[in-house]
UniProtKB/TrEMBL annotation, chains A, B:
Record's protein name: Alkyldihydroxyacetonephosphate synthase
Residues binding FAD: 204-210, 217-220, 268-274
TM annotation in the entry: none
Source organism, top-level taxon: Bacteria
Amino acid sequence: MTGVKHMKWWGWGVDGIAFHHEDKPRLAPFVLDKVGLDITTPGRRSLQLEDLTIPPSRLSDQLRATLTKIVGQANVVDDDLDRVVHTKGKSVRDLIRVRRGELGRVPDVIVYPGSHEEVQEIVDACVDADAVLIPFGGGSNIAGSLEVPLEENRQIVSVDLGRLNKVLSIDDEAGLATIQAGALGPDLEEQLGRRGWTLGHFPDSFSHSTLGGWIATRSSGMQSDKYGDIAEITRGLKMAMPGETLELRPLPSTSTGPSVREMVLGSEGRLGVITEATVQVHRLPEVREIQAYFFPSFAAGLKAMHDITRSEANVTVSRVSDERETAFSFATQKKSGGVSKLVTAGLMRVLKARGWDLDQICLSFVGFEGSKGHVARQKGIVKEIISEHGGMNVGTGPGQLYDQKKFDTPYIRDFLLDRGAAADVSETAAPWSKLKPLYDNVIEAAENALAEVDRSGYIMCHLSHSYHAGACLYFTFAIADDSPEVLERYDVVKRAIQQTFIDSGGTLSHHHGVGVEHSPWMEQDLSPAGMKIIGELFAGVDPKQNLNPGKVVHTGRPGVSVLSKQPED
Amino acid sequence: MTGVKHMKWWGWGVDGIAFHHEDKPRLAPFVLDKVGLDITTPGRRSLQLEDLTIPPSRLSDQLRATLTKIVGQANVVDDDLDRVVHTKGKSVRDLIRVRRGELGRVPDVIVYPGSHEEVQEIVDACVDADAVLIPFGGGSNIAGSLEVPLEENRQIVSVDLGRLNKVLSIDDEAGLATIQAGALGPDLEEQLGRRGWTLGHFPDSFSHSTLGGWIATRSSGMQSDKYGDIAEITRGLKMAMPGETLELRPLPSTSTGPSVREMVLGSEGRLGVITEATVQVHRLPEVREIQAYFFPSFAAGLKAMHDITRSEANVTVSRVSDERETAFSFATQKKSGGVSKLVTAGLMRVLKARGWDLDQICLSFVGFEGSKGHVARQKGIVKEIISEHGGMNVGTGPGQLYDQKKFDTPYIRDFLLDRGAAADVSETAAPWSKLKPLYDNVIEAAENALAEVDRSGYIMCHLSHSYHAGACLYFTFAIADDSPEVLERYDVVKRAIQQTFIDSGGTLSHHHGVGVEHSPWMEQDLSPAGMKIIGELFAGVDPKQNLNPGKVVHTGRPGVSVLSKQPED
């Protein structure tokens, strides 16, 4: 009716797309070997929508009338499917709970505004009615930023930005596009592409996340080494706040005091609802190429990425997987094509003869964009660095495959949940000097945590973004657990990883935001004074806590997620 | 006693350095022609320190005892010279008032802490005593950020960070240095240079401004196109806030909610006293070169800078002066060397033959750094762009001179004040599409304002920093006025320029900060909602307004500077 499409209520992505193991002959043996899990069993069915117990909407007639007046009846929705879809994001915690039918508190109504003005009226109506407002973009968040507080007794209004999906204007001279916040990645790239532009922002969630969501959570994309994180990309903003609209005009740079732009970035709905942004766009490059490399060790790969970053090359992607993720990549290849072409007995013999430990091979991708000459020069610089660190170019085949398949990764979590394993991701950023020790500490902490809960599991990592001063390490981890206690055990591992990030000089998250999932570590990351600053900011703008309360600032015990049972003292 | 050196109490820089016209034969005729001012007259003497009426210190015995206990007697100073030095920054408004002996409210005491811990104790003591605390770095601010509010009845404590001037540590692996906030530009570059590093941050005020001041006001340097503005350079921070210390660990990037780092940047002392920062440092480049170019018009020069920015070159400096500033540059050259070598009858004949209007020549500098090959390639790309826009390379001579003399520019204001003219600067940033119209509007507005106050004057401009989406335009303007009303007339011009920035899509300041000088335009720049956000932030952290009150947030009538008489309605 509203025309807005959503992901599956019970999992990632759209119907008809799912992860399969049958076309990946190495995967089942790999998982059996590493985790002791047989993934060849048919998946369990999750509940049907009809099986769910959905608490009745608490929306008052008065607020319904007000909202209906603002957006029209067709755009005020409280049917079961919509309410379930809007009740959570897509973290593995969210997926597990929804699949179990543990919905918790569910939004009482979903409104679909069609303009900034309507959003402003909705914000004001919610504050007037002392209702809770939770903005909703693509619903892809994995940090609990969409969580409805269990203890919340007020009415919950989910504001879905899905109808605000247009590129409003492009300043061709300045390379700036004004885009509505609800535009999904593919939608806005399609609209920009028609006029020869690209935003160049490609997070894993690209297909199902929105511009507004990226800004509200400080997203990064796969080509952010070149195009910048969303914080740099976003030059102007419009946000509906209680009683007034924030309008930040597009500026290349400014020295107007504490940066309001940088306060809206990462605000996760706590200051208002972002309705549009003016962002930097770029002309499509003549050449775009991703080269793959092998390194004899992760340490060598990390050093090479650092040297590339401080070289005179200017790459678009700098990525290297540890040996664990490389082995997983090898195991998920289809019968032909991609990396599997490389993992031939012949190549392996060559590497062995060179003295490589084949279990330590690390796969790397480096991206290049620009004119032919520019790309050739960058590749020349990179080639030399790779070889200084004992690496080896293995062509563009794997990179092409990576490029095509990069947005399908999140589907694997549903596949694993169907077969008794919970998998998710945690990422951090740290100075180059702290990166390898942090990595070693995280692997050890995760393995200790798995031993503590007496479950098998797996953890793997890649470096995903490079900066002058450091890089992002992106960990994926899984725990084999089919029991009702899976979330509690998962939390033991997740907590160990997050705490190790902090203890090793990293941040709690590089680009997934805070939500309620990471808020327990905020005080350790930013110091108590940093949390005081953020707390005062939120309290000043939103004194009654109507705007997505409970996110970013942790309200429970330090170091303990509010989302699962507390561990024994 | 404290060992901390300051600038002249009545002007810019140190004793023994001053601007002279005698060695610049073209200057006096130029000024006479353009402004009708005879600068060959001997300069007026300003007041002597002994002539000033300095209000007695209002420091209570109790607060003095507390401060003495914290920093020791030698570091609690209230002699006349120190109090006058700390009473203002170095805007032309500050210079005029100090030279007249119009000191206004003067700090009651200056304390020179020797450690972060001492700063923290000072902050707490000031809040406890309900005193006003104004942090002081190099004292170079020209936005009124050091202004002591006239109506302030509480005790005023100026906290001079001058003793905190050490590079504390360098992380050679990550390229990060932890430096105390009171380190002046030359001091920290010397300490870094000894270990082969540079910060690469070179604002005009470099010799007399500090790291903490740069951060507190969102400074940019001449090579920020390559090294980034101070906001990007600053990765970690330590700040003494009321009752607690903010510690932001150095991180390459993070998604921990609204950026506290970006709230401290530009906070101008209103959230606390910055005591140290961890900043990105770089290895000294093999080659460093500044090439000079002539363009037939400012419009052509602007387009060329834009094309360089969006090219595959990666320059360190992109600067082009309008024809007014170019003429001024020609006029300030010494008898031999620099641009004067170029401004020969021979070259001018060549340009004339090419059809150039010699009054429209625009001088441009483009900087290159890196390996020989890298610099050669960048120069090749730039060369092509320059020639596409009708420009002409005129070698490295002028650039070398510019490079040596760039930090001497502020001295000229004292020279002019001595001879009956008030000069200062206003800078903005705007999208590329708005740059030329903004420029035209500002020139027109300034000339109209000069006509309105019936005084001759001059305004000139250069583009100083380039970004993907736009650039900084940096205006210098002067008004010939020897009367007691010079400030009121100066304000008419300054207001016209600032309002035109806003009306033409620019920001009120690109890198000079807000203070009290620019605060009247904050609401127009950031919208009222943006000011609400900043106001709530300040009020939350500093409810009694002990921390540098009155800065950033304007408290008077909109559009009117609080610093001079209000215009008639």
